[in-house]
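Hi V.,

Quick status before I head out on leave. The structure for the redesign project is tokenized and pasted below; the design run finished overnight.
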């Protein structure tokens, strides 16, 4: 495991918990977060024994978003460079920050966001990149960038139209208003809402275990097929899944599934 200061990784069988671990500062996303989080995502994504990842947070909030007190200089706004050089640096830094969450989307492994308390700005960008989103009833979610004179640039504007629809996204983005967990579920931003943080984590662990009970080869294949099919024609997407299955269908896990069915027992998949 990496030596992290504001991130923690915990393994429970084939489920990896990736914790935002800066509770005293409401898990704000400052320089240390942006250095550690991509490394942690790569670590769990590259772990052959981690079949499902739950992203959760220690303390009272999932994340209060970008750390405005410390990020000004980090993103090239300290005035130390000329106008053109500063803008070029800012462009590169934004692209680097975007990559942290794109790693989640492009990982073949399923990621579950387990959200509680404040989930503001970058916190919403993070949960939007996950495959499944769960929350405690106390969650407060906001695409708040418009209220601090920033166009949201870490993924919400790009990923949320397919999740909540264009009209609802524009309402959230134009106003920067807060919504509670019940409203977030109503607009399909959340799969489910639970009474409190303990119930949330229990539900996230149960769901992750249900996913991990299946062949990881197949689950990861499903995610890749779904990602490929976005924006494609049905014919193009069908050809892709046919190609995927013709390449990976014949596996030890498939043979185990057949044997388990014949023997009337649960399958024990190995990811081979």
């Amino acid at each position: 495991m990496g030596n992290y200061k504001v991130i923690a990784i915990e393994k429970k069988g084939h489920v990896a918990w990736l914790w935002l671990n800066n509770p005293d500062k409401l898990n704000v996303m400052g320089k240390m977060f942006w250095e550690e989080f991509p490394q942690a995502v790569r670590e769990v994504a590259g772990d052959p024994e981690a079949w499902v990842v739950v992203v959760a947070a220690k303390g009272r909030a999932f994340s209060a978003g970008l750390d405005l007190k410390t990020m000004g200089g980090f993103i090239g706004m300290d005035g130390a460079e000329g106008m053109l050089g500063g803008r070029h640096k800012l462009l590169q830094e934004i692209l680097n920050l975007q990559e942290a969450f794109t790693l989640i989307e492009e990982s073949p492994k399923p990621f579950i966001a387990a959200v509680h308390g404040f989930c503001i700005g970058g916190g919403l960008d993070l949960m939007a990149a996950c495959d499944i989103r769960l929350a405690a009833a106390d969650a407060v979610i906001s695409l708040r960038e418009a209220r601090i004179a920033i166009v949201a640039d870490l993924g919400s504007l790009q990923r949320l139209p397919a999740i909540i629809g264009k009209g609802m996204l524009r309402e959230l983005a134009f106003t920067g208003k807060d919504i509670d967990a019940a409203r977030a579920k109503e607009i399909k931003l959340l799969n489910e809402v639970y009474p409190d943080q303990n119930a949330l984590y229990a539900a996230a662990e149960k769901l992750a275990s249900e996913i991990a009970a299946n062949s990881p080869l197949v689950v990861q294949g499903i995610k890749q097929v779904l990602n490929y099919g976005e924006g494609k024609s049905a014919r193009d997407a069908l050809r892709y899944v046919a190609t995927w299955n013709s390449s990976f269908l014949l596996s030890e896990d498939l043979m185990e599934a057949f044997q388990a069915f014949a023997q009337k027992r649960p399958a024990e998949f190995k990811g081979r």
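Above is the designed sequence. The chain is about 50% helix and 15% strand.

G. will cover questions while I'm gone.

Best,
W.
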